[in-house]
Amino acid sequence: MLTPKPIPALDYFRLPDWDRVIWVDSICIDQDNVPEKNRQVGLMGRIYRRAECVLIWLSEEEEGTAKAFACMSLLRDRIKLDQDDTNRAQDKARTQGYRGSVADVHNRFSIPTLESAEFVAPQKLLGSTWFTRAWTFQEAYLAQEKIFCCGSYRASGDPVWKVVSKIHYLYRCTKDDAYLRNICTGVLQLIGASEHEFMY
Prior knowledge:
This protein has helices spanning 7-13, 25-28, 34-41, 44-50, 65-78, 83-95, 102-109, 117-125, 136-142, 157-174, 185-192, 195-199, and strands spanning 54-59, 146-150, 153-156. The protein has 200 residues and is mainly alpha-helical. Strands 1-2-3 form a three-stranded mixed β-sheet.
């Protein structure tokens, strides 16, 4: 669940008024004990499935963190899609039958420009090394509830996937690779199988 430096995360996860029990794989599993690690591999799915909530630590707060979370909220709220929208985007990907310029798309939804710091920030956030980890799939799909954390900033799992879907929709509309820069391939792979679930 955590990067190799878990202590900053634990400081943020501490609750001020009551105790909290947290299972941290990099601490709770003896990383130098190969037999124990091998046994735990078989339990990981059960652990993530039974957890009340999985806290996913992406990083501490950085210069663009506030912009990233603000833009994700904006994209989630302003890009309202229906089935006709998704059909047209899919048609473009297959046949180039639907055309839309980057400027047209951004004007339509009143979102920051593609090159703006506001739009680049969430792309960088979605490039976190967490999305390249071996346990990412289990954490993302087995958890009953998941919360992405960057310092004191929080976003629940489904809204994050919705943002990824909507950025990918913008890419499909325009075929501009700039939409996918900085975003880990793992993010797109995770969202690809269930994109319709998160699009609306």
